Amino acid sequence: MVTEIAIFTALPEKEEELGAGIIQGLEVIRQHPQCVSAHATRCVERPGRYMLTVGWTSLEAHIEDFRNGPLFAQWRSNINGLYESNPEVFHYQAF
Asked: Which strand (E) or helix (H) includes residue 53?
């Protein structure tokens, strides 16, 4: 399993909207057959920052299958225009 960590920073005055959009988008991500788990957390010190954590069966499941499929556009439609630049995204694997 590979864990995707994505950090989103809300645009000013869009903090609550971004949080709501991420929550709605989780249901879209969870529809992908290679999604193992998906949840989001909000930063305590910086309430405009959110961390999305998604477990995928493999790196390819996220990078190739999900990002190139119809669910990606549907997921992003919930948060477009609510966050600064591109999110910071990295993938982790237990060792």
From this structure: strand 49-56
CATH topology of domain 2-92: Alpha-Beta Plaits (3.30.70)
* Helices and strands (H, E) in the chain, number of each type: 3, 4
C-alpha dist (Å) from residue 73 to 13, 29, 37, 46, 76: 24, 10, 19, 27, 5
Residue 72 banded pLDDT, cuts 50, 70, 90 = very high
For residues 50 and 7, the answer to whether their CB atoms sit within 8 Å is yes
Cα–Cα nearest to 41, from 67, 5, 2: 5
Residue 71's pLDDT is: 98
